[in-house]
Amino acid sequence: MKRILTLFITCSCFITSAQDKPLTGASSNNLGLNAADEALLVASVLDISKISGVFYEFDDIRFGRVPTDGSFLLFDTWKNKGEIFIAGDRLVVSNINYHVDEGKFISQMDNDSTFVYEFKGIDRIVVNKRPFISLYSSKDGGIKVYEVIAETDELSLLKNYYSNVQTGSPNPMLNRARNKIRLKSNYYLMRNGGLVPFNSKKSGIRNMLEPEKAAQLERYVKEKKLSYKKDADLKRMFQYLKML
Question: Is the overall model pTM greater than 0.90, yes or no?
Answer without folding.
Answer: no
